[in-house]
Amino acid sequence: MTGPLNFSSFFSDEANARVGSALRNSLKLVNDPNIVFLGGGLPMTQYFPWNEISASSPAPPFANGIGAVPTSKDEEVTTTIPKYNAPGQDIDLCKSLQYGATSGHKQIHDFVKEHTEKIHRPPYQDWDVSICTGNSQSFDSAIRTFCNRGDYVLIEEYAFPSSVGNLEATGVVSVPIPMDDQGIIPEKLEEILNNLKVKPKFLYTVPTGQNPTGSNLPFVRRQAVYQLARKFNFLIIEDDPYYFLQMAPYKKDALEEKLTGEELINDVIVSFLSMDLDGRVIRLDSTSKILAPGARFGWITAQKHILEKFNELHEVNMVTISGFTQSFLNGLFQRWGQEGYLEWLCGLRHEYSIKRNACANAVDKYFPKEVTVFSPPTAGMFFIIKFDAKNHPKFDGDVSKIEDALFQEAIKSGCLVIPGSTFAVKPFGSKKQNENTEFFFRGTYAAVDLEKLDLGLKRFAEAVKIQFEIN
User: Fold this and answer.
1) Rounded Cα gap, residues 217 and 249, in angstroms
2) I want to staple 138 with a disulfide (CB 3.0 to 4.6 A). Which of 279, 284, 326, 414 is the partner?
3) Which stretches make up the Aminotransferase class I/classII large domain (predicted)?
4) DSSP class of residue 9?
């Protein structure tokens, strides 16, 4: 292992203007028994109106599936957190509900760092993790840490609208990178970089189960993209909430067996973080897609020098994440352990494989093949169904008109799917009319049970047949 490169020159004016809070630093002395602490606005813990909180959760190895209701005490674990003197590695309420470390309490910080080491093995020494409230907040922090108004960033040509909107609102110029069914096309990225007159600060990518396309960037492409980052010297923001929702390729009437934890580690595609010799990757992880969105829990992995700037920002815009979340999640993690957490992730992957397969079966069963194109995804929560406006009997050259007509027809039929144009990143400085007549709709197999999934796709297929006048 070697030390990371210094990327201080990438920091924004805002990040450079920030300094660590002397008041926050003084809070480190609050637990010193030799200090009478009169220095901060910390409420008395006696006045916290919770003496104890408790939660019941399924227990590994989740033999009956991760969604099964426990039928005995052996199939569940109970997490009980007292206000004072919590046992073992639990975080008692007098600590978690008080102002605490911005980067997270030690117990849960250490757990996710150990998990990151186990999965990704960053190939340099000076890295760490910092707890946050999820990847949306983490990406917002990345923009503010690295970008000034007018800076350029690279982004997939279809992306989550809030991410694109955040870039636009802060005056950052988004440069969309062409994609195909496997994600970013490295050759197209290199072509853009060769012609770009302003060096981009970073590439923002959702490489696994990409939202909205469902694409899963292969290892060879990740290697190629990383080498381009080194060649042209830009950072990579790896937003990867779907990383553990990778699945085997779809085969009709076949389903892979549930993997073990070690099999899962060996099967997932290597992350950008895992190949990062320079410390130029800032990885964003979240529990929103694998535990619960409302937990608002995630973490940023990067070299320590970069995390310092994130933490200086978080000290003023976040302070710390919810104490309840830290106590409950840490309690669950400590009871599951690293192996139990991997068991959960294996179970989740298995469940999503079932739903992906059901989705693919329904598309094959209901949709007219002469006008639809569908590639079953190998990761994530999303799928897309493609169409060509030229096949529409009323096509007059306006693709958006056909897309909207199909959208309205689907709603009339009782199914909501999202038009692909909703996610399109506007090309910067391009005045050439797009001659591509293809368009797509994004759906998800994650949000409903198998029966409703089949019904929804059947209804969408009926809308397609009506619009394209297919009997």
Assistant:
1) 14
2) 284
3) 98-459
4) G
